[in-house]
Design brief:
By secondary structure, the protein is an alpha/beta fold. The protein is built from eight helices and six strands; from the N terminus they run E-H-E-H-E-H-E-H-E-E-H-H-H-H. Helix 3 crosses helix 4. 33% of the residues are buried.
Length: 233
């Protein structure tokens, strides 16, 4: 979670041809200059794959998240978003009422090609799963069609969505995050990461730093031997 003097907004994407990635990088680069706070907080932004958010960041949700993603093939997730799609599918398959993403606000820009019958299936799955889990969408669900022409050309739709989204996002970060909001985000992080570990058991990691700290009093040579046998059997 960001400190009291700063707040981070994550821009997450999955991209097969590079269009979603380019839009996400554009959003992330201009975000600190487009949004302002009512106090001394500094806004920062990072851009990364949706799957990296899950695995490397361990699903540590920020109060506001912007997602840019396309459909690929027959409605599948593109590169960098396949595990996130599996998480979304799992949320939709389960029938419990646990709103584990309450407190998360998201904006979603979807890309696709209406020449295919599965046009927009992947962004729609994201939208359904996030809302089902209790997250709140901010602004219009962006739909940028690769087969669009004239004013509906994909690049023009993307530009219009980006230009219009800032006024929708501004109210979310106007005020500092409350303690209650922080607790909701903590739950969202814990519950999402728990689900990830159910799906991807290989993500469970040993705390090697704690292990080294445990063996350190035994001396450097013995430490090296013990760690070697621990890691390699």
């Amino acid at each position: 979670m960001a400190s009291s003097s700063s707040e981070e907004v994550l821009v997450l994407y999955g991209s097969q041809t590079g269009n979603s990635e380019a839009a996400a990088e554009q959003l992330s680069s201009v975000l600190p200059s487009k949004l302002s706070t009512s106090d001394s907080r500094t806004l920062t932004s990072r851009c990364m794959h949706l799957d990296d958010f899950l695995e490397l960041e361990q699903a540590k949700w920020t109060r506001l998240v912007i997602i840019v993603c396309s459909s690929y093939g027959v409605g599948q997730a593109p590169i960098g978003a396949r595990k996130f799609r599996e998480v979304c599918d799992t949320i939709l398959e389960r029938t419990n009422d646990d709103k584990m993403l309450t407190g998360v606000n998201y904006a979603l820009l979807g890309l696709g090609d209406s020449h295919y019958t599965t046009f927009f299936r992947n962004p729609t799955t994201f939208e359904n799963a996030l809302s089902t889990a209790g997250a709140t969408r901010i602004g219009e669900l962006g739909k940028a069609d690769a087969s669009g022409t004239g004013d509906m050309e994909q690049s023009k739709v993307i530009d219009r969505w980006i230009d219009s989204i800032w006024k929708e996002l501004q109210p979310v970060i106007d005020k500092p995050m409350t303690e209650e909001e922080g607790l909701k985000l903590k739950k969202a992080h814990e519950q999402t990461w728990k689900l990830c570990l159910e799906l991807y058991k290989e993500w469970k990691q040993t705390n090697y730093f704690a292990l080294i700290g445990l063996f350190l009093p035994l001396g450097g040579v013995l430490l090296a031997i013990l760690v070697h046998f621990y890691l390699h059997g």
